[in-house]
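Exercise 7 asks you to align residues with tokens for two separate proteins.
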Amino acid sequence: MTIAKQTGKTETEVNLQNPRYYLNRELSWIEFNYRVLHEAMDDRTPPLERLKFLAIFSANLDEFFMVRVAGLKEQVEAQVSALTPDGMTPEEQLQAIGEKLHPMVAQQHQHFQQVLRPLLAAQNIHILDYMDLNQEERLYLRQYFESQVFPVLTPLAVDPGHPFPYISNLSLNLAVVVKDPEDDEEYFARVKVTKVLPRFVPLPAAISHKNTNNCYQCVPLEQVIAHNLEYLFPGMNIQEYHPFRITRNADLELEEEEADDLLLAIEQELRKRRFGGSVVRLEIQSDMPSSVREMLTRELNLTEQEVYEVSGLLNLKDLMCLMDLPRPELKDPVWTPVVPPRLKRLGDLPRGQDNSDKEEGEDFFAILRQRDLLVHHPYQSFAKTVQRFITQAALDPAVLAIKMTLYRTSGDSPIISALIAAAENGKQVAVLVELKARFDEENNIQWARKLEKAGVHVVYGLVGLKTHTKIAMVVRREDQRMRRYVHIGTGNYNPKTARIYTDLGLLSCREDLGADLTDLFNFLTGYSRQKSYRKLLVAPVNMRDRMTAMIERETEYAKNGQYARIVAKMNSLVDPKIIAKLYKASQAGVKIDLIVRGICCLRPQMLGVSDNIRVVSIVGRYLEHSRIFYFHNGGQEEVFIGSADWMPRNLNRRVEAIVPVEDPELVRDLQEILGIMLADNSHAWELQPDGRYIQRRANDGGSEQSSQKILMEMSLQ
């Protein structure tokens, strides 16, 4: 394609379909997870928080193997040779993933063993090995094993009469070799480390050989089992034991077109997931002998590339439990989300009462009638804003209907309780529960049934589309008219994640937004071919076209010699069509800043293609989850927030909503948030053209600017 340069130089030919202009999605995700690991290795991070990031790194890898690696392996087995935009085959991607991850996983375990474990020990938190215990401590653990552990264990023999047992997904196991003294033959057995007991067994302070105050000691459960194996194999000689762990394909394979009952179909697939698909990873300790290793890889049908050797403990994800220790000095300072200034005059909402008798200005709905409200979590309280909005609506006799989408929420969510209360109070309540929210399907089925039992109208989304949008609408009778109040957000209606994810939400009673949400809910719950919306950008209806048009508009401004600018914040940037449009905009002279937390397939700073594009990723105390899109528009600035990333799945296969923020003061607030994040030199990483990320640091003598800390401080003002 031909691109005309603003400089007046001769036109240059740049083929934007060339794979060299795109980064691989899977390798980009691995780079993101390395940034998570770096937080565990950063000595600026408090010790227990470092342990938390180490656990998150492991949990992220589990899901990556269960879904992404499993999918690539299926493609290889099906002899799929299709290329990704970066020009890699599935087989090449699997090879590259292994080359990236093997040293990274080794680095993770080495850091835990050599740095974090001693660091925690210096703070009187001891993760002990069984071999280091004294006699009294071993006696205690033997008694614990006899009373608590032994009754729930099931040793499984492997011999001609006992085929190799099924190994469940993400289970920690012991490969045990025993010798029969009667025939001097060696036999293999598998013992599963039970998940019904804590992974780390605490030792009572009374028997502690450390003998210091505020001391916590624990021993890994698998070691407690391993050193008491004679109870499981009486009369046999225990020759050796070796921990191992496997990961299976756990993605749902759902043919929605064939499913008469989506709820039933999901439940059936969940039962299959419990057993899992093919094995995609084997984790072992580095001292496992080749004979045991070869037997496991053979029985599990794995290649050497799929075996991950580690030194020390397996499954570091379980270290997350140590975050519950009452050691605040080893964690981030406690943060209490604040109440937005406009809501501070509202008192607590007594249970079973409403605020309908409050004077104008004191009622939540009256505050929204004055002007829109932008909320920013976790800096501002989710409970005192979004949760309060739904709870008050449930109790207010003037409210006639509540409609919401639920993608992920917590089992004890006050919002679920409020919706049930609203239905019991005679209001019409309609909730779209997305059953296909990966790894939350089972929880969502439970809420769906609970809501249905209370009389809530529950729907399960659209065939072929996942409903990811975060929207709520309240219909209220006021002075003989109906008024609609709305919330459109970037995050889930989940009070737990609202404390650790950064998200934005717009609360409004603008008539055009109320009308748009009415149309969108009708699209979700009924039959609708709605093609246009007044204000909302809705996927898969008009979002791609509108986003493309706004990028092209900035491109035209630049071509005409005018100032042009795009700033976009999102979780992932993958869509090749959007990336190509951004490249064209950069070539025309548009200044583009992208804040992309995770995957980014765009290569910035390439001469003649993306010179004007800068990409940063911020990984810190909170998970950056909000999406903001800014377009300069010739001085008539437009700013949007919403639920969608620039990914094919968000733009093509999900129901998403992005809303324009039009209140000038709120527009300035969002611009300020973007500016603060772009200036971060503490937890921001700059993407290089070759796909590497380099962490920013304050210049010599300069002050460290942490965007999340600044936003916390600003919320207190």
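Second protein for Exercise 7:
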Amino acid sequence: MKIIISTIAILTASLSLAQVKKDSVKQKDIEAVTLVVRKPTVESKVDRTVFNVANSSILAGNTTWDVLRMTPLVSIDNNDVIKAEGEKVTVYINDRKSVFTGKELKEYLATIPADNLMKIEVITSPSSRYESAGSVINIVLKKRDDEGMKGSVTLNNRQNRKNSQYTNFNLNYHKKKFTQTFIGSYSDNTWSQKNSNTQSLYKDNDVTSINIINTDRNKSPSLSSTSEYELNDKNNVGVILEYYQSKRSTFSDAEGIHYANDVFKDSYNRNQDLTGLSRTLGTNVFYKYYDKEKNKILDINIGTNYDSQKDTNDLITNYSNKSTLDQIGINSHNQTRNYYLKVDYTQPLGKSGATFEVGGKMDFNNNVAPYDLSGNMIDSSLRTNDNFHYQDNINSVYANYSKTFFKKLETRIGIRYEYISFKLRQDIAGTSRKDSYGTFLPNILLKYNFSDKYDLSLTYNRNIWRPWYTEFNPFLIPNYDGFYSRGNMDLQPNPSDRLYMKFGILKKYFISARYMYTNQDYWTTYTTEENTPPQKDKTITYPGNFSGRVQKYYLFANTNQTFLKNKLSVNVGFGWYYIDNSDFNTKNDLKGAKYISYWGGSTNISYTNLFNKNINLSAWVEVSNQNNGNSYANNTNVFHNISVTKIFPKTQMEVSLQLMNIFQRPNFDSTTFSPVGAFRNSTQSDWYGFSLSFVKRFGNQKVKTNTKTDVEKNGGGGK
């Protein structure tokens, strides 16, 4: 870590001195100076942190997924779960909720070229407008509406353990009242990583050590189209179409050795060969009424999302105490169907300066997950086939009221009500569940401006996180690492309360504190079941309900600074985390640490137009841990990324070189505690190496920020 920080410090100092010298030499020739004001790279607002990446060198050669990794307050674990300040998030794209989570969300965001990004908003205190799932990440794309045809083509080659290629094109046409945008991409990515697992069961001092080499290759084309027509100066209609496909092949080699009471029992080697094909199709038809003079906004969205994931998975296991190979085939075809209608309306209330916002959404989901097992590895405890069905209907309504009092006190109060009814069932096993519940989710925001230099804000949010449908599926499936996995039909949602305070100084320095409380949650856990001798008992991983109080405390300080006539932008954030798991561990018979304390933070540095030669530099460093529920980090990861981009204005071309984690490779190392034992997993990530990209632009590249004057964001404490 010292090497990384020292390198960036030296780089920054050298650039500063060099640029000062360069500017001083040319100062005699300057008769007039025009100051160009641009937004800081990172803006700290009351309810959100905004990462302004438009026209930044950080975009060159990256996808939206890559930039999301480098966003302040955001962390991504080895299972590709996105978190903000250590908590799970819901991802929106242009204020439209994504239907994907986990690895599916990663693959989808990897098809969106970063060149289209305007900004990424990390909304830690969302209003009632957003669906209740803790923090929200809103990815805002650029909007080009100057006349004529324009676009860009990007070619990228990335070298990690394996080589990967990525290409995309953007095409935009605007004529009077009509705007058409096409985005296409194709990637051929190979991802390789090493895993080391140690399973320590309390019974009989049973220990299994597993080493795994996993290689995953994806060939993924995608295409999206946005058509928008301006009926008049107040009314717009449009259609969004999205298509994504991925052909996947995975090969893994796992070697395990098993001891009980320090006596060797057996060993095994397991090979996995998986091929799969996924397809995603999304449609959205929207109507927008916007009266700029009266600041009235009506948004109506209706759409569908369909996702299909079909896999064929073959596992071959060679046990040391068996003369024959165990073979098993797993065929699955998961399908999700989502239909929704969403309405939002905002308007000011008279001359009082108050704003009222109201809206609602109807969501329908119809999902199916069939599995079929074959081979000689199947015993009586494994069901050979079944179809899991999940259906739900979520109806929600919300209202927000915002007003500023005494020109100093900004307020926002909101309430959201959600009602869900859902059905689960297995066709063959016959197990089923039918349930429904409603919940009120209030939120409050207060901001007091002592002066134009000092302000204090306070927010409160009630949230609820619901399980993903596959987490309910109880079908037992063998894994490539020798374990088994299944879902849990009895999963319960996780409600939580959050209190957030932020103090702003000189509009550059911010100190914040957060308190989060929950009395119930669901996390990954383990259990054991008897296996057919002479093999050891099955170790099964599944999501389990955990009762017990968890309290989290968080202190954070960050600053935004610009130097050298706004050419050098620096954002530094550093936080201290304290988690009280004492009640949680006692009630669930867990032997993990009752109290956890650790540090984390990130730094973003960007330099524009080095030596006035159209060279842009950027650097990013993050220090983070992986502590979640009953899982605890064994080491601290230091991520870093350095990139340099050369722009050729006459030919509208860019060349970018990016260095990823070249000083230290990330290693996700954590231990998960359960009532039956402790499970340590160490994953050496493949996110390191270098990347080279070429970008060719054509047409007028003038960019217009999304013109939607969202009152919820720009008033009542949303700033």
